[in-house]
Amino acid sequence: MWRLILILLPALLLAAEPDPLLPLIRQRVADWRRELPDFLCTQESTLSQGNRGRGIRMSDSAIYEIRVIRGRESYFLKQAAGIDLKQPEPADFPGMNHRGEFSSALLLLFDAPTQTLFHRAGRERVEGRRLRRYDFKVRQENSQWYVGPGAAYQPAYEGSFWADEADGKVYRLHMEAHQFPRKYVVQDAWLTVTYTTVSIDGEPFLMPAQAEVRACHTLMDCSQAYLKFTDYRHFTATSKVDFQD
After folding, report:
1. Is the pTM for the entire model greater than 0.70?
2. Alpha-carbon gap, residue 13 to 11, rounded angstroms
3. Using the 8-state DSSP alphabet, how is residue 153 labeled?
4. What pLDDT is stored for residue 18 in this prediction?
5. Which of 15, 71, 174, 223 has the fewest CB neighbours in a 10 Å radius?
């Protein structure tokens, strides 16, 4: 018995060791939430569809304007298949629709009602940064990740994020869901976002640079979108009042 305790003791001490980085990450996310202005950006999207066994083929490309107001996103189609629209049109992603994840996935992950379970994992060095990986899980009853047509279902999900040990900023996020209702249109989904520093109204913010979204309708039939985010800028709304006799 004592031999077993001595063998397990280093692991038990490591598990009980307080994590100084996670509170810093929480603070960075809270600061981001408080300081992030309403903004616009451009999303270049390439949608691929196909069968896992027979290969994936490119099926569509589009350019969207994303408007983020109070942390929530709305999409407006500007160009489809290389043809510009006269006016941007409200849009979604049939079959793999999401709501607000690219700018707010981290915010939702650290929301108290989400009750995310975090587990400190390994280290990686990426582009000169020493990143700490954290694994996480979110139960279905606490999920705020909307998946499917009309963003109608909120699945349980799990994943990882990578944060800089020097400043607590998150540079990569991966999340995936595998438990959906049996006859639901989506049976498997994942999202990966990488972040970079951009300027919005002259202030630096760590924002999504690229993302990949996948939704599988059956075990073999999948849709996948490759996304690139550019042209970040401050969103301002103006109003005009006309007085009539």
Report:
1. yes
2. 5
3. B
4. 64
5. 15
Q: How far apart are CA 9 and CA 3, in angstroms?
A: 10
Are 159 and 176 in contact by the 8 Å Cβ rule? The answer is: yes
- Go through the chain and tell me how many residues it has: 245
Which H helix or E strand runs over 238?
Answer: none
Token pair of 227, please? 């996304």
Place of tokens 């009602």: 113
pLDDT, position 147: 82
Amino acid at residue number 107: L
Write the single-letter amino acid at 146: Y
* Degrees to nearest 5, angle at CA 219 with 213 and 222: 35
Q: Domain segments of the chain: what residues?
A: 28-234
177 burial level (CB within 10 Å; 0-12, 13-18, 19+)? buried
Q: Are 136 and 109 within 8 A, CB to CB? A: yes
Does residue 147 contact residue 155 with C-beta atoms inside 8 Å? Answer: yes
Beta-carbon contacts of 88 under 8 Å, excluding residues fewer than 6 positions away, are 65, 76, 77, 78
pLDDT at 214: 86
CATH of domain 28-234: 2.50.20
Buried b (16+ CB within 10 A) or exposed e, 9-20: eeeeeeeeeeee
